[in-house]
Write a structure and sequence with these properties.
Blueprint: E1 7-12, H1 19-29, E2 34-40, H2 51-61, E3 68-73, H3 77-83, E4 88-93, H4 96-112, E5 117-122, H5 132-140, H6 154-160
Parallel strand pairs: 1-2, 1-4, 2-3, 4-5
The structure holds adenosine-5'-diphosphate (ADP).
């Protein structure tokens, strides 16, 4: 990567990736030369999908967006961002309830690494209520999840609750 290439990082658990995440990916991919989707390899969280499964799922649903790459990471997001030559973290904001945590994270990250900034994209109204945990809950009770997920992700989530 050249020094003046604009690289953004969108970190998260994406367990599973929802239409809300995908909307943030589509919109933020236009702001950078390269957007890295950084899948957190959560050690203590019991995730539904393995890190590898989540990376593959995101690669498949973002295949048409040419400047998106999907990687997994461990440890601090800012350390990963630096290693990848990225100066901007992207986060989505849904409601005021997201704000307090996101502000705290952004300020912590900026204190640790002042050269890395966080930008927030507000959610599309259609997805304002949507979270991976809600999708997992609905799926666990056998509810309809088609409205929440990219088409190819639906059967993968269903299979986990068979
Ligand atoms: P985490 O596990 O760090 O809470 P997630 O993987 O759930 O994060 O989400 C990653 C990012 O995507 C966060 O910035 C979160 O606010 C954002 N996000 C999640 N769901 C939506 C949505 N429906 N609309 C917009 N942004 C969202």
């Amino acid at each position: 990567m050249t020094n003046n290439e604009k690289v953004g990082i969108y970190p998260g658990s994406f367990d599973p990736i929802t239409l809300g995440h995908l909307d943030i990916i589509r919109r933020s991919s236009g702001l950078f030369d390269t957007l890295i989707i950084a899948v957190l390899n959560n050690r203590e969280k019991n995730s539904l999908f393995s890190t590898d499964e989540r990376v593959k799922m995101i690669q498949s649903v973002t295949a048409d967006i040419k400047n998106v790459v999907v990687k997994s990471f461990d440890g601090l997001t800012v350390d990963f961002a630096k290693a990848e030559g990225a100066h901007t973290l992207v986060r989505g904001l849904r409601a005021i309830s997201d704000f307090e945590y996101e502000l705290q994270m952004a300020q912590t990250n900026r204190t640790m690494s002042p050269e890395i900034d966080t930008i927030f994209l507000t959610t599309d109204q259609r997805y304002a209520y949507l979270s991976s945990s809600i999708v997992r809950e609905v799926a666990s009770f056998g509810g309809k999840i088609e409205h929440f997920l990219p088409d190819e992700v639906v059967p993968l989530v269903r299979a986990k609750y068979k």
